[in-house]
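User: Predict the structure for this protein chain, please.
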Amino acid sequence: MKKIISLVIFTAALVWTWNIIHSSNAIGFETHSGIQQKFADMIKNTIQNKKPEATDVKIIKLWTENAGERKVKAVFSYSYTEPASATNKEKTVRTIEGEAFLYRDLSDSPSVDKWTLQSMKTLGDNVQYSDGSLITPDNAADDEKEPATTN
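Assistant: Here is the predicted structure, written as structure tokens:
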């Protein structure tokens, strides 16, 4: 009797794992690829609209993953170069990381997926200056300062 019960349990587990492995994803590869392309375009257009003086816009990383039946989580990182100020010719490179959640919304056409940006937050903002600034305690020039000595 134990052998029959073991065989039934083993067969049920085998069928269950077979179905899990061979089931189709709720959100296909093409959908993820399309979301990533549209999201990258949205980031670039937003930077160009908000900071028209920005140059060298790069999407460093961007990937999406399922976050539920009708949700996708997008993780991104991008950078751009901008002048420090109008009078200063120094350039800064800003690198911004973040994540966003998109929700599959009902569409007028059943063959078209409609994704709505539900939330977006930036997790880190890194600023890198192309030229450093000299900061001294008494605002003296370089040639007026004596080198520090240690005893």
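Helices lie at 2-22, 29-50.
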